[in-house]
Design brief:
Layout (H helix, E strand, L loop, with lengths): L5 H8 L9 H9 L9 E8 L11 E5 L10 E4 L3 H9 L3 E3 L1 H8 L7 E4 L4 H4 L3 H4 L17 H9 L2 E5 L5 E8 L4 H17 L10 E8 L5 E3 L5
Parallel strand pairs: 3-4, 3-5
Antiparallel strand pairs: 1-7, 1-8, 2-6, 8-9
Helix pairs in contact: 2-8, 3-7
Length: 229
């Protein structure tokens, strides 16, 4: 059994495991827990009543958080010619074409988000085994395969969050830093939760969100009542 720190144990003791909290209560509880000497990332995990093996139940999307993520993402763009120049001017951190595809194929992964122009996808597509498991594969549905690289880069830099359900039906996303006000965190959480609910597949019957947890980097998860989301 893993041994937890004194701070973690103290935080865990504040959580009533016989209770399901509202998102607002969970966020307030996290903010009341013992602090660390860095700004923790706040995250959520939702268990969805979907079968990701079915194409119509593979829930994925993106949201521009109203209060940002609290971090500046390092953006890589696969583009060439004028679009490469446009991406650099928009604030992309890494821009390239064939040589950059090779670098990533060989293990270069020092970036947080990936954008690609449609003409590059023939070559970027073979990076699926590298980028896919990390949730970094460009996709038209999330606006990361586009000719409008300026908008894509600025959206990501401004606090855009992508999400995708995994093979077990879990959907996780970050929605801010613990230093944010409780109101800002709640607004960010609601923005993503509302989009996830909007994307509910028509073939799903019964309760859609069956379990939910909100946590921070060094804190135990706080169970959230799915009915309150």
């Amino acid at each position: 059994m893993a041994k937890h720190s004194k701070k973690y144990r103290e935080a865990a003791e504040r959580i009533d495991r016989n209770n399901l909290y509202t998102p607002e209560e969970a966020i307030a509880l996290l903010k009341s827990m013992p602090s660390y000497n860095f700004d923790q990332t706040v995250e959520a995990v939702l268990r969805l009543n979907v079968d990701p093996r079915k194409a119509d139940q593979l829930v994925r999307g993106s949201v521009n958080l109203p209060n940002g993520t609290g971090k500046t993402a390092k953006v890589l763009v696969f583009a060439r010619g004028p679009k490469a120049t446009e991406a650099l001017e928009a604030g992309a951190d890494i821009v390239g074409d064939d040589d950059l595809v090779e670098q990533v194929a060989n293990g270069f992964l020092d970036f947080d988000s990936v954008v690609a122009t449609p003409d590059m996808m023939g070559k970027v597509g073979r990076l699926g085994r590298v980028l896919g498991p990390r949730g970094l594969m460009p996709n038209p549905k999330t606006g990361t395969v586009t000719m409008d690289v300026t908008k894509a880069v600025k959206d990501i830099k401004g606090g855009k969050v992508d999400f995708r359900v995994d093979k077990n039906g879990n959907l996780s996303f970050l929605f801010g830093k613990l230093s944010f006000t409780a109101e800002a965190l709640d607004e960010n959480f609601r923005a993503i939760a509302d989009e996830v609910k909007r994307l509910k597949p028509s073939t799903v019957k019964g309760r859609y969100i069956t379990k939910a947890t909100i946590t921070a980097t060094m804190e135990p998860g706080v169970p959230v009542d799915p009915a309150s989301i």
